[in-house]
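Side project, low priority. Logging it here so it doesn't get lost.
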Amino acid sequence: MQCRGEALDYRVILTAAATAAAGCARITPAVRLLLNGHILHKRDKGDSCLDAAKFWKQVVDGLLPEYVPTASVPRGRPSGKPLPNRLSERHFPATYDNKKYKPDCEVCSDRSKGRHQCNTYCKQCELPMHAIGCFEQYHTLRDFRK
C-alpha cells in the first residue's frame, strides 16, 4: 500500500490482509486492530506515513519487550580463567599398545589413598584414565577430582 490522501475502502484492505495472512480464512481481532491503526496513522501523517508492513513491524516491536522475558544476567563473580581445552574440544579414548604398561589414572588414582591403574588414555590430552567414568568426568567437569 502506498500513502495517498484519499481514503481506502476498508473491504479492500481486509481482503489484502486476508490474502497476506498465508491462507488464514478469517481476520482476527488483532489484525483488524492493526488495520484500523494503520488507517489512522495514514490519516494523521499524510504523505510521510509508513507502509502497512513497516507499521505492523513497529507495533509488534514496540509490544514485544513487555511480554518477552529478557535474558537473565549471570550472578556472582565471573571466572577469570577461560575454559580448558579438555572441556571444549572433542577427545577420544584409546588403549596403550603395550598391554603390560598400566600407569595411574589421572582422575581417580591417589597414591596416598590407593593406586588405580588403567591401560586406556585420552589421545588428545595424552593422559591415562579409565575409559568408563573417569574419561567423561575429566572432559566435562572443571574440577574433576571431587
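Brief comment: The longest helix spans residues 29-45.
Revisit when time allows.
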